[in-house]
Fold these 2 entries.
Entry 1:
Amino acid sequence: MRAVIIENNEVSFKETEVPVIKENQMLVEVISAGINGADLLQKKGGYPAPKPWPQHIPGLELSGKVKYIGSAVEDFQVGDFIMSIVGGGAQAELAVAEPEYSIKLPAGLNPIKAGGFCETFFTAFDALIIRGKLNPGDEVLIVGAQGGVGTAGIQIAHAYGCRVTALTKNFDFKTRLTEIGANQVITDIGENKYDVILDLISGKGLSDRISNLKTEGRYVVIGVGAGFKAELNLLKLMEKRAVLTGATLRSRTKFEKQLVAEQIKRSLLKFIEEGKIDVIVHKTYSFTNAYQAYSDFENGGKLGKLILVNEKYSDAGRLNDN
Ligand SMILES: NC(=O)c1ccc[n+]([C@@H]2O[C@H](COP(=O)([O-])OP(=O)(O)OC[C@H]3O[C@@H](n4cnc5c(N)ncnc54)[C@H](OP(=O)(O)O)[C@@H]3O)[C@@H](O)[C@H]2O)c1
């Protein structure tokens, strides 16, 4: 099979060995796989995949068709179309997926877009609903709102009946961000107060943004692209009885990820089926063009996800013929 391979801090698409599944795993023919910030970090030599996931094939999320199943797999069959979060190895023609956090493709989700669902929506759901304890009617601010997790977060908060403000550095995206659920799009934080702030960039600005929490507000950090250090006035937290929390997804135990997957199946899939939630895709690339896709991700300026597609499935309409 061929896969995106990280070598000497670069990516290329080349021949490699077919992965071997254990009895509780599935081998999936990948339709598509999203690119995430973690892949970029891995390419630069950081954020290694947890073992025993592939160390040189990036990719944390995929959609695909189940090709083989291990003897202990119960809920999936060969031929099922699924989407899944994986510890690594998604950006390949064949990848290993685990049933505990695989989801049969819901009606209404394009199979190519589905390859950009799991890491992104699991992260946004965990941050907003589980860590941020979002309630219908809450005022929510999403900082760094135009990326993959941000556009997922906007839609989730909107579907839960919250009032959503998107903080973006690119005002050109205002119309699209409004269409997917943002009540307000801003480029400067201003004085408004929020019940939940989801910070996808962090950095020094975090210190000031804490002031924008309401009493009993929740501040959730999941991205540190603007820096991982900030000075904090603890009195602000005390005065507001605020919660400052953060999370990573990749390093969690199987059981912890399974809990998120179960909640997503119960609470989020219905929004996809109702057309309230979709994966926002900026651009798709064939696997052979992975180098360009990574380069575009690095250069920024996108709205939503960049997704790598297996050429065999480049026309999603072919899905039913395979
Ligand atoms: N904790 C976890 O488990 C977890 C899981 C997934 C992702 N993450 C992290 O969460 C962050 C977001 O993920 P993602 O997939 O959404 O990445 P992404 O698609 O690159 O989105 C990040 C967005 O933030 C924007 N941005 C950067 N600096 C900004 C600023 N100063 N003001 C406003 N917007 C700014 C970027 O704009 P440009 O494109 O124009 O630069 C980009 O649209 C990343 O750092 C990622 O590594 C964490």
Entry 2:
Amino acid sequence: MTKAGTVALVGRPNAGKSTLLNALLQTKLAITSPKAQTTRNVILGVYNDEQGQIVFLDTPGFHQPKDALSSMMVKSTVATLKEVDLILFMLDITKKEKAVDKSLYELVKQAKVPTFAIVNKIDMMNRNHIIPLLEYYHSHYAFDEIIPLSALNQDNLDRLISVVMQRLPEQPLLYPEDQLSQLTYQFYISEVIREKLLNLTNQEIPHSSAVVIDTLSFTDTACNIEASIVVEKDSQKGIVIGAKGALKNEIIKQVSMELRRQYGLKINLSLHVKVDKDWRLKTSKINAYLNPNSSEYEQ
Ligand SMILES: Nc1nc2c(ncn2[C@@H]2O[C@H](COP(=O)(O)OP(=O)(O)OP(=O)(O)O)[C@@H](O)[C@H]2O)c(=O)[nH]1
Ligand SMILES: [Mg+2]
């Protein structure tokens, strides 16, 4: 019988959860950025090897919610904890422990499933400093395993896979072996646009923006996309467009380059910037912008 199970990746914003998901699956499924609260939806990635299948669920970073958007994100992380066979609690070794880590740990314990601490970003720290930090986590928490690794450098990922496999139940595969994720083209493309926006802007813009795909069509040679970046204020619209459209054009350039490489198609992207005042405070807007439920195109 094969091993199979679901595994949640949780932790504070910016710990490196999405970077780890992509590294484990050797493909880009989730966007990543140095800005906190990059991931807004739970993202599924299916790992297969000769021993079995691990269904990873990358979650929005756990934090103290400040508005309807962030409380929805945190809710989806907490809900994920209740439906998995194992939890990977990701810690950034370069960051001091915070009260929010303890709150998340309490929630994780309630799930009553094996929990591993993933101590990430060890590439940033001298070996002599790593050991005492691992010992600290060992003595202050009851993790079933503590695994130091670097998601960015793909260091020690084999060990992570093998200890996760050991703890999963023996059961039939949960997903067909050729299914990597559940991403639609609409969702993935909107995320790639948001990623470039996050990397090119600062302060309140990353948190105030959403991306919606207005139209999407494919031909044998091209992918045609009309998309809108939604911001909260007129002043933000000006920043996202940039002087003579410079920032908007840079986003178009970077997105087109990446999607062309990935899909092997010419990318025709037209991008609009719209203002929807205080959308982050309105549940109906958040649902519309975060869950484009069109499954017309499955990736
Ligand atoms: N040096 C170093 N940087 C890393 C490592 N893993 C991730 N990062 C960087 O940390 C930042 C955050 O990474 P993400 O993967 O987006 O973090 P996340 O936990 O998914 O963040 P949220 O989606 O906001 O919860 C990015 O700039 C990554 O390149 C690592 O092992 N070493
Ligand atoms: Mg993320």
